[in-house]
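[Protein data]
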Amino acid sequence: MRFCWKFLLLPVLAALAATPALAREGGGGSTGGGQRIEVRPYIEAAQVLSAELSPGNDTVTYTRLAAGVDTSINGRNTAGELSLRYARTIGWGKDAPDVDEITGIARVSASIIPRTLTIEAGGLATRTHFEGNGGSVLNPFSSDGDSNTLYSVYAGPSLQTHAGDVALTANYRIGYTRLEGPDGILAGPDGDPVDVFDHSTVHMATLHAGTQPGDVLPVGLGLGAGWYREDISNLDQRAQDRHVRADVTVPVSRTVALVGGVGYEDVEISSRDALFDADGNPVFDSKGRLKTDKSAPRVMAYDVEGLIWDVGVIWRPSVRTTLEAHVGRRYGATSYHGSFGWQMTRRSSVNVMVYDNVAGFGGQLNNALSSLPTSFDAVRNALTGDLNSCVGSLEQGSCLGSALGSVRSATFRGRGIAASYAVDLGRIQAGIGAGYDRRKFIAAEGTILASANGVIDENIWLAAYANLRLDRRSTLSGDIRANWLNSGFANGGDVTAWGAGLAYDRLLTDRLSATAAVRLDGITREIEEDSSYLTALLGMRYSF
């Protein structure tokens, strides 16, 4: 069933290719009102040679056929980006199976009522590879059918209006994340099974009413409430966070303001236990995941309620620079969060974000996806067509690296920092993103997940890309990536995944181009054997 629905995208791509008014590179169609739409469909054919350098020395050859579309919308009331690609890998020989892959990323914002009611939506489909310590590696370097596909989508309305001097905002978002693959069974280095995330549904709603300093009083006042709920399929886990708070903004100077807030929060995380057989052994389903005992009572893993507060500072020396930093108490402990955005020039920017939240794997990814900008360039691996963990954009929230990391099903408190730098000089586009993510898992005592409670996984990630236009018809591009995955689970072991690639594109005609690319990827493991691959590609692309 999973194989069939993917082909439903092909008629859509064919329809886009048959729309010449919208399908020109650098051109576009207009829908009126100054709105500009660009649709750029393409088809590809490539021959790939992959040589295993370690631990073995196998060499595999395969053909890759692909069809995709890149779409951008830039208008007064609607903005968004879509990059969607379907690829069929045809192996040469019995040890090289055929594989179907769909990858894509999208983010769109559409005003139903201009400046008042907006619909936000986004989606992600990408390949990932599991490691024995529970870590996930984006952009797996092989196409042997052993990778898994990660899907995440969200949508919801956003309302902004006024009642006199009081600004009213309300947001709602529903999201869904699923991790599927040829085999859901993941064994750690010690042979014990790891409970891998399956799927989850997320609901999030916020409501806020407030005034700006000087509108009614010399200080700004606000009152807000929020609700977050994530239902994880594994063992019926549920994370729920409800809070109300009041906040104040005190101007200190033209560029500096002090902010603070106080409120009440109730955070609950619960689950059911696994199903056990007559011999007391846990029962696994056909995907290798633990079966849930639906008759078992729900067990509380985390229940924290009470006073929350934070104080901070906002610094805005210009329209191009904003710093916001907060410290306070939340989740029963000290909490830090903030952001920094600096548009150094019209063509370069630096963005930093510090975060602290409670979520599951799906909720964390959904939050990162909703933070993507509505204007970006998808960055893809020239060898596999997979997505980079960062998109090309000068805006904040352009990287997803902090949302990946561990694929364990247990909920966690996630804290970390993510930073990015991007530059667009016309002939040169480049960007780099890096970050640190720390997850402290939360699980109920007396259940099969109890051993995960309090365990910490850490992920340091790096992603960089660069595109250089050599002349009117030639482009040189490259990317590097690295993940350092440190697991606190017993016998989890540390894993370092790395990769670097270089590609040369040559425009042969206005629509036909040729590509030559080479890539080196590897994984270094503390406990198991290391592995590395060298891959080369020769291909052609026709853009409609």
